[in-house]
Amino acid sequence: xxxxxxxxxxxxxxxxxxxxxxxxxxxxxxxxxxxxxxxxxxxxxxxxxxxxxxxxxxxxxxxxxxxxxxxxxxxxxxxxxxxxxxxxxxxxxxxxxxxxxxxxxxxxxxxxxxxxxxxxxxxxxxxxxxxxxxxxxxxxxxxxxxxxxxxxxxxxxxxxxxxxxxxxxxxxxxxxxxxxxxxxxxxxxxxxxxxxxxxxxxxxxxxxxxxxxxxxxxxxxxxxxxxxxxxxxxxxxxxxxxxxxxxxxxxxxxxxxxxxxxxxxxxxxxxxxxxxxxxxxxxxxxxxxxxxxxxxxxxxxxxxxxxxxxxxxxxxxxxxxxxxxxxxxxxxxxxxxxxxxxxxxxxxxxxxxxxxxxxxxxxxxxxxxxxxxxxxxxxxxxxxxxxxxxxxxxxxxxxxxxxxxxxxxxxxxxxxxxxxxxxxxxxxxxxxxxxxxxxxxxxxxxxxxxxxxxxxxxxxxxxxxxxxxxxxxxxxxxxxxxxxxxxxxxxxxxxxxxxxxxxxxxxxxxxxxxxxxxxxxxxxxxxxxxxxxxxxxxxxxxxxxxxxxxxxxxxxxxxxxxxxxxxxxxxxxxxxxxxx
Length: 580
Ligand code: PEP
Ligand code: MG
Known about the structure:
eight-stranded mixed beta sheet, eight-stranded parallel beta sheet, binds magnesium ion, alpha/beta, 25 helices, 51% helix, binds phosphoenolpyruvate
């Protein structure tokens, strides 16, 4: 039995068979196999090299036909390398001698070649490093593709165990309908992969460091997404323990579901709004089912991430309209593209950045790609006549950015005017407050924005100087640090003073541990993954505002994150013991 503790990112308990995935975009797990498995792994290599060679030959042929022989000759290098035995033999040797898995052997040998090419003085050869990289990706894709097909072939549901998953890979797993839980080596609580798993509603644990080395395909695995525990090959006692826990949890979920039609109102009559966060249009249905009163955050970038290219204006319009119609007149806050950083692997971008979280991300990227930005804004405006649509700009850092974004929105309006296409003239324009600069300048921003949504996922990352998706510094990444709480209070107060609505749409909003505190700080609109709505509603309906204010006052006097967490846990337990 192997038991590992990681970061809980999506609650629930599940048992099932493991499917270990070697992912294409990231580092391949350093896994070893038994001597008996070597032959089969070597056969995979032979097949993958053969298919990759065929792929390059076809590519060469089609390029020659379209662009001529000179251009097609680029592929002679790849074909030359792959048709000789040398590199393939080295990969086979790594499997024979070191017992590496096929993907790990490929990755090690090709990386060594890349390194060698990097050192070369000869300009022609040092430029070939990209080609070696391309070959590695293609061979790996052949191998990983086999893993993906393995999911398709599965009859039984599986628990995916992977080194890391990109948000779009996670979304693909959701579409397969075979995956019942996720466990990964890398990742943080608010990394976008975790957010997708949460919306999807399957138990997930990330940041397990090396779960991929301890689990093999077919192993029985327990995933406790509530406590962040993954157990491989559990004994009978462990299975019994988790079976009981699973039943308790499903009873709680059923009880909470009865609150669906009831309003989120405190015992002393203060009305609160609970909204849902979504990444894909179909998730709007889950929001309604769980009792959300609107969509407080629609992360539109996922439409881009799951397609091969930018979706057309019409495709975007249809996706937005679908959400608005599913919400039947309830508010839908459409956030403009937040591309970059962890959502797009650096290998896939045309200009990799050294510090993507501090780079050309989000609104910065949109303001540098105006035609694309305008296409999205037109699609949002067109959808605005179908319901109560609001538009929201992410990662705003300066007033100038907000003004520029509004200017592009005006141009999009003019385009529609010229075409005679209707849209809502007074569409509310809001900003995410998720950088320390925007939070500090909240009073100034409130004069030029119609509403705020506090993005604690990024605010914590930028205030604490800690990468939100890096499990190695996850201990620093917490909403409970007193300076984060003071900053959140500052933004809520600034919005109240200037009379604009403020919501909070980071993962903090859906964590029941913070509900009493946030109410006490004056928050009246929360936006969270659909699955979190019932628990938060239960807490709202179990407290008085006077009590919440007292809790908030006390919390803000505490010195550190530990004390805050312990105190909030105690207070929440008093109100709702079964949740904590
Ligand atoms: C946030 O940063 O808190 C947020 C809600 O946006 P995202 O998680 O998409 O960055
Ligand atoms: Mg954000």
